[in-house]
Amino acid sequence: MASALSTPAVPEISVEEYIARFVEGNEKPTCEYVDGELFPKSMGTMNHARVQRNLAHFLLVKYEDRYETLTELTTRLAERHFLVPDIAVIDLSHPIQGRYPSPNEPVFLCVEIMSPPDRFGKLAAKCEEYHAWGVPHCWIIDPETQTAWEYTPTDKEPRKQQTSLTAGVIELRFSDIFHGVKELI
């Protein structure tokens, strides 16, 4: 299966070893897994962490009666394909049955927050993988430039937004998303 991830850093491992080490064992750095290969996630910056905190907070405060918001949730898109979005939002009317979403249980919204050395194209390609899994909404957020995009399966490409992000009934303003984010010096 093709993946938007970069060249793996370590030799091939089994699905069972990946689950034991990185899902159940919480080994760091967090790695994604595609067809036996590990792909370490980029380390977050302070601004990345601030945006992730803000998203989790405002999604919880505004939408906890309808959605569950989780950070760094391992998602299993296929038998040998695991990705870890920065934020995963689960529609409570379609709860996840296991310890993490399975190939038949796509989440409602996946959010990817850019960190150095992430590139926009890589994150957009990950969103396409989420869409193929069945995720109806993806957001890509760049904390350093305070820009953000929405991406749905019907879009030809991510749509840059100016003041807020939406996913169905969910709407978050940039002022909330980027609260406390510092400009680069």
Walk me through this protein's architecture.
The protein is an alpha+beta fold. The protein has a single domain, classed as tt1808, chain A, CATH 3.90.1570.10. The strands form 3 sheets. Strands 3-6-7-8-9-10 form a 6-stranded mixed β-sheet, with helices on both faces. The protein has a 4-stranded antiparallel β-sheet with strand order 2-1-5-4, sandwiched between helices. The model has no long low-confidence stretch (mean pLDDT 92).
Quick synopsis:
The chain has 185 residues and is of the alpha+beta class. It has helices at residues 15-24, 46-63, 120-133, 174-177; strands at residues 31-34, 37-40, 67-71, 75-78, 81-83, 87-91, 109-113, 137-142, 147-151, 159-161, 164-167, 170-173.
